[in-house]
Specification:
The chain is mostly helical and 414 residues long. It contains 18 helices and two strands.
Length: 414
């Protein structure tokens, strides 16, 4: 079955999911979501994430602006954080991100966007100052400094999308370049090596910290954002060198063979010293740590550097995941972060960007699996791991397009 033939089923499922998420009072009868990341201004688990679904549907003519507006109003209700906890996934930057998508199709939201932009600029300036001070001290970075979800890669992704030629965009890209420049410590560990566990906190299993490859919390996020900037023609001094430095490190740790390459999710100091990663540590093909994210970052880097072999390796990696039932079986979840929707959308994005017919041919099978899983037990409505994210992936597959400003920028996939 071709992707075109599969479009009605994908769209029909996305429509049903969106209809079930149309009314905040139905989705959350108690008036607000529950859980640690479910504040209204949370992109991952709150109203802003569900608003993104309805905004994208309204922008493409598959939903109505009244529903999108209702959810956007729910997302901005209450005090909006521009404090140290604000990032692409929470607070003013998260709300600026979704409002920018709405404002691209309706002037109704421009004044709100201006206010959110001002707050996001303040947040970014503060984070940049702290990051440069840390580098000046020669210390290792905390995870929340540079990652996509909490850090400056995420803020950089927003600014590159919102105003690519603004000084704040250049300043954030310049920081990401500096992040890759050697510290005074031994060169065998890269300058983005963290002295904490993948949780972001110290742990006895990671006495020497870890090196993180992932798109959510690792250097993959910086690689994707820097590569996208090069592709957009937004360059700052040293940016190509920075991309090449990251690629040199990821190449050193690339596993498998030419037909089925893969990258670890993270490595420990002991593994770095041994120069070995056991094949049992191959991550499942999720977006956050697995090939759905790492392969897309490699593809973007290959396109930015003009390295055909790197693009081909990335596409072979995603194809291996799409064709391997064992890897597919490691993703029973539906979501963008940990589940099938993330693999589906990353593969769609990769196949679309280079018009790779092999990748495109594999998408209907995975979409069928996702649709069947969604028809089963009830799922959380949230964007990152729930039905809102799955609906966006199916909507995009069904329409065959995602117009700028891209909704999947928050995943560093575009």
């Amino acid at each position: 079955m071709t992707t075109t033939a599969h479009a009605p089923a994908a769209l029909s499922t996305a429509d049903k999911l969106a209809d079930a998420l149309a009314d905040p009072t139905t989705v959350w009868p108690d008036g607000r979501p529950s859980g640690g990341r479910a504040w209204p201004q949370s992109l991952a688990g709150g109203a802003s994430g569900i608003a993104l679904l309805h905004i994208e549907r309204a922008r493409t003519g598959h939903g109505d602006w009244d529903t999108a507006h209702t959810w956007l109003a729910a997302a901005v209700d209450g005090a909006i954080s521009a404090a140290s906890n604000a990032n692409l996934y929470f607070g003013a930057p998260a709300l600026a991100f979704i409002t920018h998508r709405a404002a691209s199709a309706s002037s109704r939201y421009l004044r709100l966007l201006d206010r959110l932009d001002a707050a996001t600029l303040t947040v970014t300036h503060s984070r940049l100052t702290a990051a440069h001070q840390r580098i000046d001290r020669g210390e290792r970075p905390p995870m929340e400094e540079f990652d996509l979800i909490q850090g400056l890669s995420g803020l950089g992704a927003y600014h590159l999308s919102r105003h690519p030629h603004h000084q704040i965009t250049r300043d954030t890209l310049a920081y990401l370049v500096r992040l890759t420049e050697p510290l005074s410590e031994p060169a065998e560990l890269p300058p983005w090596w963290m002295n904490v566990a993948p949780t972001g906190a110290p742990h006895r299993d990671y006495p020497g910290g870890h090196g993180n490859f992932g798109l959510a919390h690792g250097i993959g996020s910086a690689l994707a954002v820097l590569s996208q900037a090069l592709l957009c023609g937004v360059a700052v001094p040293g940016m190509t060198d920075a991309v090449e430095r990251i690629c040199a490190w990821t190449d050193r740790w690339r596993q498998g063979d030419d037909a089925q390459p893969w990258w670890p999710g993270q490595i420990t100091e002991q593994q770095a010293a041994d120069r070995r990663v056991h094949s049992s540590l191959r991550p499942r093909p999720s977006w956050c740590y697995g090939v759905s994210g790492t392969a897309r970052a490699q593809q973007l880097a290959g396109l930015a550097l003009g390295e055909t072999a790197r693009v081909q390796a990335a596409e072979h990696a995603i194809l291996a995941a799409l064709r391997d039932p064992a890897q597919q079986g490691q993703l029973p979840e539906i979501g963008l972060c940990h589940g099938m929707a993330g693999l589906l959308h990353a593969a769609w994005r990769m196949g679309s960007d280079t018009a790779n017919p092999e990748i495109t041919a594999e998408l209907p099978r995975l979409a069928d699996r996702l649709i069947r899983a969604l028809a089963g037990e009830p799922h959380d409505p949230e964007l990152l791991d729930g039905t809102a994210g799955a609906a966006l992936a199916l909507h995009t597959l069904g329409t065959g397009r995602a117009s700028a400003p891209y909704w999947d920028t928050f995943l560093a996939l575009a």
